[in-house]
Specification:
The protein is of the alpha/beta class. The chain contains nine helices and eleven strands. Helix 2 crosses helix 9. It binds guanosine-5'-triphosphate, magnesium ion and zinc ion.
């Protein structure tokens, strides 16, 4: 009898599939080999169990979505992982990631790690991101504070982790499932050198869900989009934009802009607006190149 599962990794000619709460070592049916069909982690497949944990992949089901980096299919949500300290949170990168994640239509959860390194759990910036509609968690991979909450979010979903190098993504995975250690690195040795501890893509079964670690990065290009689209990923602008004088207002140099008015009345965080304008200029500059 065929059972449905999700591909978690391909390795040395075998495909590992998570189904019925266990991992199956699968080979492909001839026709898949002939077609050289591209499987990526997250793909839903039908497998035919054989002896022990062996099985064959009989069919691949249609993808709902797929990410390029990490190369994972059928993703439900992204955890954007930033440290409270060491390294200090890079809000420009966070806002870029929020644009990327928003564009792919995924749910974004912002996770701040290393709360054990700061005296104050509360940060006014966190509150601002919450009012934008994002979930914000504070956790420590050292004291395990907040880990249970992360576990609840992971259940039954495919999640990707993203965030700068050294922010504690692999450490978080280790806390979520201590049986299988992920490689973690020392912050000081890696920052700014572009070397990453995490290399390959693999989905890791955690509490009935699957999670992909992603190597950290320090800069990131915005996805291709029209200049008008960017504001969609700054959800706090939405309630003002209808009051701008021009329907096509980009909230930059236009007169009678309700978004800028909100900014002047401190209803919009200056840092967020600054990033919006910076991203807008990047997108406009790129449009001109073509
Ligand atoms: N104090 C403290 N240290 C942490 C915490 N989480 C991670 N670390 C440390 O931070 C360093 C980097 O952690 P990693 O988990 O390797 O970071 P990463 O995000 O996987 O980094 P890349 O794989 O390079 O993207 C390691 O030395 C961890 O021990 C935390 O909650 N508190
Ligand atoms: Mg890592
Ligand atoms: Zn405007």
């Amino acid at each position: 009898m065929l059972i449905e599962g999700k591909l978690i990794k391909g390795y040395a000619g075998f495909y590992y599939v998570y189904a019925n709460d266990r991992v199956w070592e699968c080979s492909l049916r001839g026709r898949f080999r002939v077609k050289k069909q591209d499987f990526i982690p997250g793909d839903r497949v039908l497998i035919l169990p054989g002896v022990e944990n062996k099985a064959t992949i009989e069919k691949v089901l249609e993808r709902r979505n797929s990410l390029v980096r990490p190369n994972v299919a059928n993703v439900d949500q992204a955890f954007l992982v930033f440290a409270r300290k060491m390294p200090d949170p890079d809000y420009n990168l966070l806002d870029r990631l929020l644009v990327q994640v928003g564009r792919t239509g995924l749910q974004a959860v912002i996770i701040f790690t290393k709360t054990d390194l700061v005296a104050d759990l509360v940060d006014p910036l966190h509150e601002y991101y919450r009012t934008c509609g994002y979930q914000v968690l504070n956790i420590s991979n050292k004291t395990l504070e907040g880990i249970d909450e992360v576990k609840k979010l992971v259940h039954g979903k495919i999640t990707v982790l993203a965030g700068p190098s050294g922010s504690g993504k692999s450490s978080l995975l280790n806390c979520l499932q201590p049986q299988k250690e992920q490689k973690t690195g020392e912050v000081s040795a890696k920052i700014g050198r572009g070397r990453h501890t995490t290399r390959h893509v693999e989905l890791i079964p955690i509490d009935g869900g699957l999670v992909a670690d992603t190597p950290g990065f320090s800069s990131l290009y915005l996805p291709e989009m029209k200049r008008e689209e960017l504001q969609l990923y700054f959800p706090e602008f939405l309630k003002y934009k209808n009051y701008c004088r021009f329907r096509s207002c980009l909230h930059d140099k236009e007169p009678d802009c309700a978004v800028k008015e909100a900014l002047n009345e401190s209803k919009i965080l200056p840092l967020r607006y600054k990033h919006y304008i910076q991203f807008l200029q990047e997108i406009i500059l790129r449009e001109k190149k073509y």
